[in-house]
Amino acid sequence: MFEPAQENPYPDSHVLGEGPEPHPLLAPVLPLLGRWHGRGRGQYPTLEQDFRYEQEIAFSHDGRPFLRYEARAWLVDADGAPVRPAGREAGWWRVTPDASLEVVLAHPTGIAETYTGRVSAPAAAGLEIEIETKDVSLTPLAKEVTGTRRHYALDAEGLTVVHDMAAVGQPLQHHLTTRLVRRA
Ligand code: HEM
User: Fold this and answer.
1) pTM
2) Would the N or C end of the chain have less CB density within 10 A of its end CB?
3) At 27, is the secondary structure helix, strand, or coil?
């Protein structure tokens, strides 16, 4: 009934210089492009114990003014051995002409978040991004999350992500900090 489909002519790229030319509006966030891997520590007042994890993050683009974002984490024990899969999320980071960000993220735990935020470059080769939820939407079985704020800081050493969360009756406070390096 249909002709055979052709190869996708608009592939995503994680690497500058490969694939489509990045859209000019992406300039402020281009240092994020690529695959990142790191370790983190987490806590929340409702949890008996703090926890450790590893995380992979990937940012790519298809030539339009947004990044595709995906992250997955797994808990590790004190020796770094894997314990079990943990948080996963995926979404889109749209960059506006005034270098503001509009971010949409979805979680397998029934949580969908929209964020607004901004990019700043405080030091040469550095990058700081802060995004805060505008809305959080929950499926019936999701845990109650009412807001989150994320801070991304990129310097010569790598990428640090700090994630604060208001959830399960608690005010906005620290849940996660991850330190990542670019994956070859
Ligand atoms: C690196 C990613 C993440 C890791 C490693 C992580 C890890 C954890 C762990 C270990 C717990 C304790 C419960 C359990 O053992 O499953 C937990 C609880 C929780 N997390 Fe996360 N999390 C991550 C991301 C997120 C995100 C993105 C959100 C919200 C959008 C979130 C919201 C929550 C909530 C609401 C709880 C339940 C607290 C409670 O019921 O007392 N987490 N997380």
Assistant:
1) 0.96
2) N
3) helix
